[in-house]
Amino acid sequence: MGVKKKRERRPRESAEARTHRKPPADGAMDVRYGDEVWQGIVAHCRSVTDREVGGVLLGELRVESGRAVLWVEGYVPALRATTGAGHVTFTGEAWAEIHREIDQKHAGASVVGWYHSHPGFGVFLSDMDVFICRNFFEQPHMTALVVDPVAGDAGSFVWHEEELVRRDAPKVLPLAKEAPATTTQRLTDAAVMMLCMIGVACVVYGWLIWTGN
Predict the structure, then answer these.
(1) What is the total count of domains within the chain?
(2) Residue 155: helix, strand or coil by DSSP?
């Protein structure tokens, strides 16, 4: 896409906050994911938590019991995308690699959307996310998946009456937080560090005596 999405802190009543809170509308398309595909997407989003990552979704639109259902049956990580704490940029190089991957491993598959992570700052579409959807994934059957691997939340955003509404996504387990170090652990670490420093000092002192300095 070549568009850089910058992280934005939302005021409570901003447009993107309202998009995030808007309940799924009747008649909006459902999105479903194959188990292995979902596990792979989540694993990619969990692989890095200090910056965003993303990729494209592959699949097809079906009609089940009279309702439109988008089945996501593949994905391609944008490994050459430029990423940061609050942005992911699909550069020309990233797109070239994605298309090579599709040609080699997913021949005939159709791109039906994109995904990216929001590590630790929630599931919503920023203004830039919406811009990307409107300009690059604007077809009615396309979706935008957002995964927060830290909080354990995810949502698929779909088009309904020219607006993006959130649909539920499969469960994501939150990342386990490291337990804070106990006083005993801190004292032990300090003691080990002191012993290491004493050992180094002894080695240096012995070397100085041996060399006659």
Answers:
(1) 2
(2) strand
Do 151 and 47 lie in a common domain?
yes
203 burial type by CB count under 10 A (0-12 exposed, 13-18 middle, 19+ buried): exposed
Q: What is the DSSP letter of 122?
A: -
Q: Are strands 153-160 and 143-148 parallel, antiparallel or unpaired?
A: antiparallel
Enter the tokens of residue 171: 């469960």
**Residue pLDDT tens, the chain, 213 long:** 544 454 443 333 333 433 433 444 447 899 999 999 999 999 999 999 999 999 999 999 999 888 899 999 999 999 998 888 888 888 899 999 999 999 999 999 999 999 999 999 999 999 989 999 999 999 999 999 999 999 999 999 999 989 999 998 998 988 765 444 445 554 555 454 555 455 545 544 554 465 565
Residues 72 and 158 in one domain: yes
**Residue that is written with structure tokens 């009609």 in the block:** 63
Query: pTM for the complete prediction?
Result: 0.72
The amino acid that residue 61 corresponds to is L
Q: Which domain holds residue 195?
A: 179-213
Q: Sort strands 82-84 and 87-89 into parallel, antiparallel or unpaired.
A: antiparallel
Residues 157, 137: Cα–Cα separation, whole Å: 11
